[in-house]
Amino acid sequence: MSEQLVFQPSAAAIARTHVTKDQYEQLYARSVSDPNGFWAEQAQRIDWMKSPTIIKNSTFQYPDVSIKWFEDGVLNISANCIDRHLVERGDQVAIIWEPDDPKAEAEYITYAKLHEKVSRCANVLKSLGVRKGDRVTIYLPMIPQAAYAMLACARIGAIHSVVFGGFSPDALAGRINDCDSKVVITADEGRRGGKTVPLKANVDKALQDAPGVEKVLVVHNTGADVLMKGSRDVWWHEAAAGVEPFCDPEPMNAEDPLFILYTSGSTGKPKGVLHTTGGYIVYASLTHQLNFDYRDGEVYWCTADVGWVTGHTYIVYGPLANGATTVMFEGIPSYPDVGRFWEVVDKHKINIFHTAPTAIRALMGAGTEWVEKADLSSLRLLGTVGEPINPEAWMWYHKNVGRGRCEIVDTWWQTETGGVLISPLPGAIATKPGSATLPFFGVEPIVLSPEGRLQEQTKAEGVLAIKESWPGQARTIWGDHSRFVSTYFETYKGYYFTGDGCRRDEDGYYWITGRVDDVLNISGHRLGTAEIESALVSHPKVSEAAVVGYPHDLKGQGIYCYVTLMSGETSDEALKIELRNWVRKEIGPIATPDLIQWAPGLPKTRSGKIMRRILRKVAENDFGSLGDTSTLADPAVVTDLIENRQNR
Ligand code: 6R9
């Protein structure tokens, strides 16, 4: 599809926009030339207990990287997301909860109710011994208690670490131990797509390897019979009934930690990305308002899970800071049928709908009759996030879901960036299918050659880096600042390196081409090849494994595993199934291998390094251009790999 396809903002979008095209250009120029002035003004959208006088104090200078914003400001995020709305919109719905089962009752939680629920949870956490600065792991399904728990932590100054409910007990234990959580919040079970997920049983298993946990707070969700361990396990509803329905928000310094979120990197175990208070909430609320052109009274639905950063910033913190009505959906797009998203849009009269390209591609494959059946006239704007969107999926979304009327907002960002960095502002920026378009205020993207040369001409291709700090950015990796510095600031000194490749076209538009490191993006979920490899080699029959991504029609990328077995083991279908299940058990279902190839040997350099470039090419079926193979220790290995490739 042509890059020349350009969609100008609709007249309706122009008429209502918070930011016009001219204002975007002027404000953008100001935001980068005078960050202190620009962000001092933007900070006023937040209620501060003490206003900040120092705005930006950040340097990307290697190795002394230090990121601080609003550092003498004092505030509480829970008060900003709840209390300050009570006078004007106590009776307005803050959260609409749509259950997995369409026949079950939806819940409408007003800001007044949210205040009570969060306060009670905060008091329960205090009664369990949680103090400011303590870590609390949240392992919950998409139920309102997930938002209550996050906000309750923020209210008392505890640092939450939300772990996606699809992760295995092992993965959960690793994350609990890494940040030393004393308290875990979970549910008896979760529900998803008509199935149940044994969350409490998973926690029980995880805690065998996480002895530091003292208390487990359990939501009574499905009513399943679960084991409650005497002094350790506490029912949420019982504890909440016994505490006061109000709790003073703790004064927090702008740079006090708000949350840790584990995400995959190219090497080693997942990193605990740390976000702090002031800069994060200013950035989350501003980007939520401007990227979606959010107005009071609109119903906004982001289909992400709170276990990912999108759920943090664009289901909970950004929308609630703006006094929005935000939808939490417990289910999946295909249950009970592939019309579910559109039914929910119709049912709750959604104005702004935000989802991932992988969901769009899957629903596109299901045919247009599902979309046509529903009344989608409430929709005004459609967002996408999580991975590059192919122009075909963009066009399908625009034509069939948006019926040609809705702005499409492709938002590029990362767990580490806290909020959107590149995205069209509706009503201001023309869109091109497949491009995330232009940077947000204060964001200075640059394109570097892989060797690190700055590409100064507008039209350029290379790796994407960011020149200067913005308020929403992660401050460090929990317990490992040197890993933070080496991961993001060492390869291209003086810049934040995103790990993504990109093109910049003649209009300065950014086209993200995907990761250039060993991070996979499977249906919008981030996974490190190293994590999957280490799960595979922990199986007693596996001697070596190398994992790469390959193009996958629905998932964007699929997981391709090359596995070398211990000598004497039989390479058969039964073992492939066993290994697939093994990885699911070790990490979780999202990491299930798509293709496994038995590899008697892996292509290695003479110094023993696996040549992943070759493995990627074979997995992509592109072995005509393997590049330089002269450093291979044993070239015959490659012939075998090509003959036995799985992705034909
Ligand atoms: C928010 C989120 C980050 C990685 C990122 C990039 C990919 C996200 C994208 C996109 C192209 C978009 N990504 N949004 N690629 N266009 N609109 O997804 O965070 O889970 O940390 O993933 O996802 O590769 O580097 P996270």
TrEMBL record:
It catalyses: acetate + ATP + CoA = acetyl-CoA + AMP + diphosphate. PROSITE patterns: AMP_BINDING. CoA binds at R192, G193, G194, K195, T310, S523, R584. Its EC number is 6.2.1.1. Residues 531-609 form the AMP-binding enzyme C-terminal domain. One of its GO terms (biological process) is acetyl-CoA biosynthetic process from acetate. Residues 84-468 form the AMP-dependent synthetase/ligase domain. Its cofactor is Mg(2+). Residues 24-81 form the Acetyl-coenzyme A synthetase N-terminal domain. Acetylated. Deacetylation by the SIR2-homolog deacetylase activates the enzyme. ATP binds at G386, E387, P388, D410, T411, W412, W413, Q414, T415, D500, R515, R526. Keywords: Acetylation, ATP-binding, Ligase, Magnesium, Metal-binding, Nucleotide-binding. GO terms for molecular function: acetate-CoA ligase activity; AMP binding; ATP binding; metal ion binding. The modification N6-acetyllysine is found at K609. Belongs to the ATP-dependent AMP-binding enzyme family. Catalyzes the conversion of acetate into acetyl-CoA (AcCoA), an essential intermediate at the junction of anabolic and catabolic pathways. AcsA undergoes a two-step reaction. In the first half reaction, AcsA combines acetate with ATP to form acetyl-adenylate (AcAMP) intermediate. In the second half reaction, it can then transfer the acetyl group from AcAMP to the sulfhydryl group of CoA, forming the product AcCoA. PANTHER family: ACETYL-COENZYME A SYNTHETASE, ACETYL-COENZYME A SYNTHETASE 1. This is Acetyl-coenzyme A synthetase. It comes from Devosia limi DSM 17137.
